[in-house]
Amino acid sequence: MPNLISDIPAKRRFTVGMIGGGHGSFFAGIHRAAMRLTGCFDVKAGVFSSNEAVSREAAEALGVIPERTYRTFRDMAEAESIRSDKIDVAVVVTPNHLHYEPCRLFLEAGIPVICDKPLVNTSGEAEALIDLAEKTELFAAVTYTYTGYPMVRDARARVQRGEIGEVKFLYVEYLLEWLANDPSKLGKGGLWRGDPGKAGLTGALGDVGTHAFNILEFVSSKRCVALNAKLSTTVDGFGLDDTGVVQMEFEGGAEGLLWCSLAAPGHRNGLRFKIVGSKGTLEWRQEQPETLHLSRMGQADLIYRRGASDMTEEGASCVSLPAGNPEAYLEALAVLYMDYASALEAGPNWRTIGKTPVTDLNEGLRGVLLSEICVRSSQTKMWQPFPKSRMWGDP
Amino acid sequence: MPNLISDIPAKRRFTVGMIGGGHGSFFAGIHRAAMRLTGCFDVKAGVFSSNEAVSREAAEALGVIPERTYRTFRDMAEAESIRSDKIDVAVVVTPNHLHYEPCRLFLEAGIPVICDKPLVNTSGEAEALIDLAEKTELFAAVTYTYTGYPMVRDARARVQRGEIGEVKFLYVEYLLEWLANDPSKLGKGGLWRGDPGKAGLTGALGDVGTHAFNILEFVSSKRCVALNAKLSTTVDGFGLDDTGVVQMEFEGGAEGLLWCSLAAPGHRNGLRFKIVGSKGTLEWRQEQPETLHLSRMGQADLIYRRGASDMTEEGASCVSLPAGNPEAYLEALAVLYMDYASALEAGPNWRTIGKTPVTDLNEGLRGVLLSEICVRSSQTKMWQPFPKSRMWGDP
Amino acid sequence: MPNLISDIPAKRRFTVGMIGGGHGSFFAGIHRAAMRLTGCFDVKAGVFSSNEAVSREAAEALGVIPERTYRTFRDMAEAESIRSDKIDVAVVVTPNHLHYEPCRLFLEAGIPVICDKPLVNTSGEAEALIDLAEKTELFAAVTYTYTGYPMVRDARARVQRGEIGEVKFLYVEYLLEWLANDPSKLGKGGLWRGDPGKAGLTGALGDVGTHAFNILEFVSSKRCVALNAKLSTTVDGFGLDDTGVVQMEFEGGAEGLLWCSLAAPGHRNGLRFKIVGSKGTLEWRQEQPETLHLSRMGQADLIYRRGASDMTEEGASCVSLPAGNPEAYLEALAVLYMDYASALEAGPNWRTIGKTPVTDLNEGLRGVLLSEICVRSSQTKMWQPFPKSRMWGDP
Amino acid sequence: MPNLISDIPAKRRFTVGMIGGGHGSFFAGIHRAAMRLTGCFDVKAGVFSSNEAVSREAAEALGVIPERTYRTFRDMAEAESIRSDKIDVAVVVTPNHLHYEPCRLFLEAGIPVICDKPLVNTSGEAEALIDLAEKTELFAAVTYTYTGYPMVRDARARVQRGEIGEVKFLYVEYLLEWLANDPSKLGKGGLWRGDPGKAGLTGALGDVGTHAFNILEFVSSKRCVALNAKLSTTVDGFGLDDTGVVQMEFEGGAEGLLWCSLAAPGHRNGLRFKIVGSKGTLEWRQEQPETLHLSRMGQADLIYRRGASDMTEEGASCVSLPAGNPEAYLEALAVLYMDYASALEAGPNWRTIGKTPVTDLNEGLRGVLLSEICVRSSQTKMWQPFPKSRMWGDP
């Protein structure tokens, strides 16, 4: 199976158009580094910024020709859609409130889309995109990076094969520290996250809570059916929630709990989950992504390890380096891009690649719903139902 | 300062009467081992079981003379109260529903009381005992063992001196696995915990949730003012909650979260807390009690260690062994008994010993209130207020 | 099986005479705390110091009557040997150079002996004591505390049952920090350890290297047959080695490596071993004594835990508290004293108690030989043979 | 400062010729992935295998034109040296015994060289290459990957600035497990490592011991001056040492110890070091490369973290991702390639780039000397002097 390292024989390559990602857009650089790592993608077109000079500078640095450096994503969708060498996929890395329009335009132009998380700011928009993607049968994905870690996929497979018995309780925490600094000193990067006009309905919940929620559903293959949230602002001057606690119920009766914060000093990117089953408990921490901890009734704990011979097929299939030569964050994102390459190659059958489903627009919708329903619950101080939806990969 | 090891010069010794603790009572043996460790207590009287033969066997093994081996705790309270060499303190280690009566009788008989946790099964009983203790000015304590760990006291002192800034979020989890086994195979020891007639209003919450709640209030020096609980039974056939989640609000606006379970495979005695402040976060785990983890904004984490020269005075004052020669559970309980010895020596001024307050009947009451209020919240699916009370050591 | 907690029915009790252990003798207090914990020993006689006032103070604190508070250990051996209630065992906790004489006198007086480690300062003395003990068939033991940890015994049993295959490499390190401080500020406690007249031939090697060596032989059930040592003094003004490295060969061809130091800042009592076999590797750390780490070829690591149901019989038989309620250093020493109680009860058959052999005078001899042979190797810069001897428990 | 992620503005790019690295050459793929990650290198020429078909397949996959796909490295050196667009650097990833010739030829042809580790198989060859590189003033480096980890560089800087006081003891271990399998089942990949004709003088020592030795000298900025080695074969049928222990002396009197093995089950790529100073101890583990552990006399341990604001300049300058988004092995190798890009840009002044010196041919020589001197020591069972050489970056 091809992995990040294998480069002989050559992999099939895909051309990319980028929306967003000029100088100063930190995560766009990470996306491009992950693409380089795969050896499957070439950026060939783009509108890298609403500021023309910034966009041109990016195009030049990335080797995009002036003809394919566009002023607006509307221009780009139109022009690319009629080229014989049109881009294979559009990668959308603009700020949150500028996701919907480009996604819609490129799908309408017949071009598959990879969109940064969160997908959009309202569930209505998300549903509109889902309809569009279903009608066009085009590949469309949301980059929930943490689902690219091999040990997260290994955890998912172990839950599915019953290694922890029946799932009883799903715990996740995602804590960051950056906002705990004097907020008056926050740079532009931080402040927009507290601005409802840009970040959307929620702060911490939308920014990191959605990742946490997504990983619980991904690993457990279960859907949340109800929740009770308390969103709080602990840092003066921040315009949205910086901390949230969500109690959840999952289908089949499992309980869940989510705690997220942007203002927890000492936490850099502190995502961790603990899935309690009737026979064992699985734990994983993003900052030590190479191992998965299985503890069992009265017996020795097991430390599973990326690259070991006892990995599940689902985990092993996205391993690139041997055990002991650690992989990390960039590899996880690159694993998603490897999936995207397979999906693009598969065309309309893109949902059937591999054993691990792609995090698609439906998952993007659920992230948006999480924000909307948590706000409702937090305001009413009441439990709220959460709409069920199909499982990944289900028709 | 005397510690568990120091035995020259001799420490002052106190005579103990035990209520409960015959053969088969596991935790009574732990209490006596802790007392032996202190070198301050001698069991001289008791009613060790409602079964006379069991009680006599225990008396013999413990060297208690027949004259002071009683048939009922009522007999014992009466007889001891008029002896010239009456016991200095009564230690109550009966099952939960048999705490109230002996506590009441001994206090009325003018004898101080040390009672196992939870104090009693209703807040009315707890309040009655508090009134009695205040009237008699007698020492009375509830054994919240985990408050005896040096690094827990160190954590409390560090919070008080502002090392993590303003307290923002209090997280605690307390997970055990024993109930996850086939419940039909549970021995007598387990089943009574699911029997409302014996265990009280709650199962997991009363058994371990109270410890978790107590340690949050102890470490933060803050009081819970409202909560929203969801109590669940995940194991078929268990008569009470085996799992609980409690969202909390603390005075001054801090948020809190408690998760407890008796049915989390892979967890033996998994109590851990994380206190998030505006400048740093403190974490401690009962199964690795020798260290306290302080993580800070963008800087190296600190691993504080029992016995190191940079401990707080509050923590250092209950250290017995040098750093590197680990202490553990028995030492923690023995630290409480060292406190009790100091308290007994202080007489009516017992509240003023040392910097760390004794976990007294008021803390016992709050444990009982926790069960009552969580049941109300869980049934109504609503937030409920939690009565404020004086802080430890406050008049 | 009786353990530290079980006290009903009563255990058989033994009377103890102490040699050494007056005020200021730190480790004597630890020995007494361990004895208290067992509930099997009562100090009834002693010469607690060469300073009469100090000795009397100790006797009083410990409840030893004046008649049995002796001026010299010669007086004590003579007087006790003819009492009808003579002590069951003499516990020797004097400084190293005062071990030989009391051990000899008590054995000659027909009284079993428990001696602190290192046994004596020359192999000739050790051999004389061995001869005496064999002739008299009296119980005699050396307190290698670390062999009392349940997970160390569990490790030994796992090696014996072939869980790691054939033993290939034995690594141990034992690092402390105290000497790294400005040595001019060392108190009396430290300075004698660098004084050849008191500490013996070696410094770090005799003080902690012997523990490290003992634990390797104990866990592997293998004997060192040759070694190549380099002893160094890294702290100016210390009169003996403060650091040592010893390459070793074990019977059957296994390799070994020992590193010890008294001057390694950041290490409190840093004893850890790693036993590499053909199928797996076992690791244990004294500062986290509750777990034993087994790593295997290409498979999940196993974390064995004290108190779990998958412990070996040898490990489980010395467990007192349930898993999750941690045990530590005092319990380990108390486990040895539980063994000693069994041995005293067994009389001449004391070597056959239980599955784990007592660390006897022969092990004491090997510790002394270690110092002598390492000095020879370090001076000649050559490999030196190490005398083979019988295995624990062998006739 | 440019890092792996920054791609706007564009970085200067260099053309690469590869010697070795056809299909089946695992580490060549890793080198190319690291180059892709930097965004600074393009493979434009090569002889990828002695097998022409294999070489052509690689050329095609990598987009190398037939004209620059050569049959021998002699042909390649000649042809490239006279092209106007000749390669900027030759990357040598052939098996060990085929390093010398291509390095020599390319340096003679005026083309800088990056050579996989170990440099060559005899110190004579290494010295010849050093002479050549000095004469030509060409950049030449050996890829000691582990020196590219930010926290290794951070450790080096902390030692240099005196954070642990005077260096006293240098410990390193490097353990792998692959050979512990039934050696009769070893594939071709493994067997050549035990073949003196291909692997060189030593097995484990040359393969991993050299990395371990290099990292000690790199982190401490100290040179080994004498050693005493014991090389062993613990796996039947392996033609060279699979296990080694090396005692060392460093300039200025520090002691050292190295343990390496290819046959330690449970170890995947187990490189870790511990540097003991007079004031503190630094520890780092390759499998958890994001943190550096500083333990100190009687004070809290510090866990330094990649990306934190308290990193040293030397460490921070090679960071690409924010703390919490972990980096790992590929990033470490890519950091070396970033250095190489800077060095190629600097031309004859390449030694003066940055604060961290490039691991050059002199370090390659020391790796070869390590094998030669350890063999001599192991055979004679005697200490042997180790030639001093200039420090990195020294003229």
UniProtKB/TrEMBL annotation, chains A, B, C, D:
Q: Which GO terms describe its molecular function?
A: nucleotide binding; oxidoreductase activity
* Organism encoding this protein: Ensifer canadensis
Positions of transmembrane segments: none
| Cited InterPro entries | Gfo/Idh/MocA-like_OxRdtase_N (IPR000683), Gfo/Idh/MocA_oxidoreduct (IPR051317), GFO_IDH_MocA-like_dom (IPR055170), NAD(P)-bd_dom_sf (IPR036291)
Instruction: Give the signal peptide range.
Output: none
User: Taking every annotated instance into account, which residue ranges of this chain make up the domain GFO/IDH/MocA-like oxidoreductase?
Assistant: 152-283
Listed name of the protein: Gfo/Idh/MocA family oxidoreductase
Q: Which UniProt keywords apply?
A: Oxidoreductase
Q: Which domain of life is it from?
A: Bacteria
What range(s) does the Gfo/Idh/MocA-like oxidoreductase N-terminal domain occupy? Answer: 14-143
Is Oxidoreductase set as a keyword in this record? yes
* Keyword ATP-binding annotated: no
